[in-house]
Amino acid sequence: MAPMAIDPQQQQQYQHAPPPMNQQQWMMMQAQAQAQAQAQQHQSQAAMQPPQLWPQQSPQAVVPPPQYSASPASATDEIRSLWIGDLQPWMDEAYINTCFYNTGELVSVKVIRNKQTGQPEGYGFLEFRSRAAAEQVLQSYNGVPMPNGEQNFRLNWATLGAGERRTDDTPDYTIFVGDLAADVTDYLLQETFKPHYSSVKGAKVVTDRTTGRSKGYGFVRFGDETEQMRAMSEMNGALCSTRPMRIGPAATKKPIGGGQQYEKE
């Protein structure tokens, strides 16, 4: 049989064709091509995404620790101190601080001592970070047995009555409230009137300075004269705790150091 004639153009293609590859070379070329394709795919995906300026982390709420000021209250702050009474001679500042340490709100403790003898007078004062904290302690601890003691906590607002501010330039219209039961506190006296008279500004039960026990009378301050007059007629004989109240006008007197005080009329 005569040999097949080869076209000159085909012959030229055969001459320039690469030599046949073995299996190992072919697999290496396939791997390189696949790696290049993956690299191009990653580059195209990265170009479509916005740049990450911060590391991607699961969001967490950052809560700063609470910060309190231990400085005394300014003249415009509400009262945040409590009077504590019926203290035994061994009950010093360290003991009292331990009693209220768990509240996390106590700023300072002061036990009053006799200037001549240095012996405790049986009462002291507690200062808290806020009026709300002081009120919470008053409501939670007053009347509760004291640790390692034979008596209950006896607490009351210091200096000013419940709801009163250190300074108040608005007019006061005050009534005298007598025949109070021994368990009536500033807060209870105020809450006896406040639901009926929106202008009630504060209340104060007068106590013995040494023992802290109620003297059986107090005062309620109003911001509206009409409500003061109504209270004297409407609340006279009404119950506060377990006893009916005796209500009358309160005479004011100006002390030398300024401020406003009240006395029975």
UniProtKB/TrEMBL annotation:
Region span, Disordered: 1-73, 245-265
Q: Where can this protein be found?
A: Nucleus
Q: Which Pfam families match?
A: RRM_1 (PF00076)
PROSITE patterns per the UniProt record, alphabetical: RRM
Give the keywords, sorted.
Answer: mRNA processing, Nucleus, Repeat, RNA-binding
- Bias class Low complexity marks the residues at 1-61
- Record's keyword annotation contains Nucleus: yes
GO MF annotation list: mRNA binding
Example GO CC term: the record gives: cytosol
InterPro entries recorded: Nucleotide-bd_a/b_plait_sf, RBD_domain_sf, RBM42_RBP45_47-like, RRM_dom
Q: Which residue windows does the record flag with biased composition (Gly residues)? A: 256-265
Where would you say this protein principally sits, based on its record? nucleus
| RRM domain residues | 80-160, 173-252
Protein family: Belongs to the polyadenylate-binding RBP45 family.
What PANTHER family does the record tag this protein with? Answer: POLYADENYLATE-BINDING PROTEIN RBP45A, TRNA SELENOCYSTEINE 1-ASSOCIATED PROTEIN 1-RELATED-RELATED
- Which named protein is this? RRM domain-containing protein
Taxonomic source organism: Daucus carota subsp. sativus (Carrot)
